[in-house]
Task: inverse folding
């Protein structure tokens, strides 16, 4: 059995924390507002806006077919059997890239539950799919859990709890068969 080293766990936790910070910076302070839409509306001298702000980023010119990401929803084609959304959780963002080997899947969500409940839910879901938990429960003070299936399928879960709300990032690198 391969075991992630502490460096690998620390790198994954730093990546997860960076993702959370980046999403926090991109997420409007008030749900339903869009600062880009406000600034474009302001430039039209008070003319009413006829378009609704979009939560899906347009594809970049370099985006490969089969890659997608969105904010505030589960992206089309997302393998929900592999990484189901915890009941009661809200999607912050999701992404799916089936063009890479292994395929990469990520989900960021939030829920008004303790971090331990999030870890327990995803541990149960992943273990039911044949993943084995790798020893270790935290990286620093952040609850973080790694899972391994076979030699190549990996999943990392990191949870940050603030004021009774847990924000979690779960990412997977898995074979193409795992995301069908």
Result:
């Amino acid at each position: 059995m391969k075991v992630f080293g502490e460096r690998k766990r620390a790198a994954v936790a730093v990546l997860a924390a960076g993702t959370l910070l980046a999403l926090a910076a991109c997420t409007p302070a008030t749900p339903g507002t869009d600062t880009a839409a406000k600034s474009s509306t302001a430039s039209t001298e008070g003319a009413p806006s006829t378009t609704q702000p979009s939560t899906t980023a347009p594809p970049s010119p370099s985006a490969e077919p089969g890659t997608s990401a969105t904010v505030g929803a589960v992206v089309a084609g997302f393998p929900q059997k592999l990484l189901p959304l915890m009941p009661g959780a809200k999607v912050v963002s999701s992404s799916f890239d089936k063009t890479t080997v292994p395929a990469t899947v990520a989900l960021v969500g939030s829920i008004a539950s303790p971090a331990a409940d999030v870890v327990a839910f995803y541990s149960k879901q992943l273990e039911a799919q044949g993943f084995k938990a790798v020893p270790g429960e935290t990286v620093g003070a952040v609850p973080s859990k790694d899972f391994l299936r076979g030699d190549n399928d990996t999943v990392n879960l990191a949870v940050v709890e603030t004021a009774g709300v847990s924000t979690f990032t779960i990412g997977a690198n898995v074979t193409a068969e795992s995301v069908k």
Notes: Helices lie at 6-26, 35-42, 115-127. Residues 6-179 form one domain. The longest helix spans residues 6-26.
